[in-house]
From TrEMBL:
RSE1/DDB1/CPSF1 C-terminal domain ranges (all copies): 2-305
A molecular function (GO) term: nucleic acid binding
Lineage top rank: taxon: Eukaryota
Coiled coil: none
Species annotation: Suillus plorans
Pfam families, per database record: CPSF_A (PF03178)
UniProt GO cellular component terms: nucleus
Protein name: Cleavage/polyadenylation specificity factor, A subunit
InterPro entries: RSE1/DDB1/CFT1, RSE1/DDB1/CPSF1_C, WD40/YVTN_repeat-like_dom_sf
Amino acid sequence: MDGYEFASNELVNTLTCVSLETTSTESGSKNFIAVGTTINRGEDLAVKGATYIFEVVEVVSDPNWTPKRWYKLKLRVRDDAKGPVTAVCGINGYLVSSMGQKIFVRALDLDERLVGVAFLDVGVYVTSLRSMKNLLLIGDAVKSVWLVAFQEDPYKLVTLAKDVRKRHATTVDFFFAGGDLAIASEDEEGVLRLFAYDPSDLESRGEFHGHKECRSTIMIARRTKDEQLIPQAKLVSGFTDGSLSTLTPVDEAVFKRLQLLQGQLARNVQHTAGLNPKAHRIVRNDAVSKPLSKNVLDGQLLSEFQVLGISRQNEITRQIGTERALVLHDWSSLIVPW
């Protein structure tokens, strides 16, 4: 339909849809497209950046050439920065953007300019930003994950928690099931880590080695029944090799059955290239005495159960004290894409 061409020396780092406060609508808010860029100026000058706010507007089209409804991008704001804008997101009607190691919260004033209301110095290089209500999740290239709260009266960002270990977090996101909220982060080595706001509870954290680098995540709703409330979320991750994976919450009873099944499959199914699937997912962690991968099931290994013969399936499920039909029902409820 339409597009926007940046300068030849300007590269797009991040793009997302944000809801910002505005006076142009009756509801007081409107969806915009926010873009963060890097402007290269050669080897002798430091790079700069910019933040763009686009609005999708409906225009009158020629009925002989185009459909009845036609849309175009309208540039509302271009805000220059002293460094590259590496990540953007929205929080409570405000725009959050990162410039190197700084986080800025800005308000859209009269749909013409961005006005700063709060800022925070974080790690070394911000790679990812995610928000939920007034909570802000920050991923850093060196200082791993930060959890920050945004306060409006007075305006300020308050650090709630952060990972004490140095890790390169390529992407971070929220993950919830029922009333429990977790933080998911992935690093450049392909390791998925789950954090909870309870550092004294070891069981609330988990690690899983995916062996491929993740660069993008999106949290989508996962409805378990025909109801208006959304009790769970599903996290979809995109990797540099073009593949996708999903992280899905599992009920405790189902988790125990599938965990026993996973152990039986690791012992009975032929291993690819002679590699042990259990050791393949273990993450080296010098800070704890036991691996934290038990809290995450290996869907790739569990999928091998479907291709086994019926007699072999009955034999394996009998060894773990359950039935084949029940295990297949548990697995089929988890493999749906959305």
